[in-house]
Write a structure and sequence with these properties.
This protein is mainly alpha-helical. Helices cover 56% and strands 4% of the residues. The chain has seven helices and two strands, in the order ααββααααα. Strands 1-2 form a two-stranded antiparallel sheet. It is elongated, with a radius of gyration of 19 Å. It starts with 13 loop residues before the first helix and ends with a helix.
């Protein structure tokens, strides 16, 4: 019987389901708040503003999620899961990695506000297009696929006897 390495993540684990819920909430926040922010809220003057901190936290959640994808086991066929890290990483790099990077890239234009003087006049809203890019269809569809996986994992979790990785965990 093959034992899973400690760093390979079972997508049906409770921790992964909680993480998927956090990324789903982050996605919902981004889809709702970004258009309002772009249209009605002035650019942040410094890194101490509440919305700026929330946006950077959401960005951090998406960045951590990208990292987790390199360790997340995936089905190969019925009741067979990929647990070799190099195969998992290669699949992610050939698949969603590029879109994940592109969807987060515009956020880096907002980081200079972190070091800005909070008493200085507000900057020109140069990051408007960057913030709008966060709601692009690629970004939204990418993260909705994670929401779908979360819902599917929750459905599978209801019946532990159908856990396809149980044999690998020695259950």
């Amino acid at each position: 019987m093959k034992k899973i390495k400690w760093y390979i993540i079972d997508p049906h684990s409770t921790a992964m389901q909680v993480w998927d819920a956090a990324t789903a909430l982050s996605l919902i926040f981004t889809a709702i708040a970004t258009p309002i922010e772009v249209a009605f809220i002035p650019a942040p003057k410094c890194g101490l503003e509440t919305l700026y901190i929330i946006n950077r936290t959401v960005d951090a959640i998406f960045m951590v999620d990208m990292t987790l994808q390199f360790f997340l086991s995936h089905p190969v066929k019925a009741n067979v899961w990929e647990v070799r890290m190099h195969v998992i990483a290669k699949r992610y790099l050939r698949g969603w990695f590029f879109l994940d990077v592109i969807s987060l890239f515009p956020s880096f234009f907002e980081y200079p506000a972190m070091w800005a003087d909070c008493n200085a006049p507000p900057p020109v809203r140069a990051h408007t297009s960057a913030a709008a890019t966060r709601t692009s269809s690629a970004h939204v569809s990418l993260h909705f696929s994670h929401l779908f996986l979360f819902c599917a994992a929750a459905a599978l979790q209801q019946d532990k006897s159908k856990d396809p990785m149980a044999s690998l965990r020695g259950i």
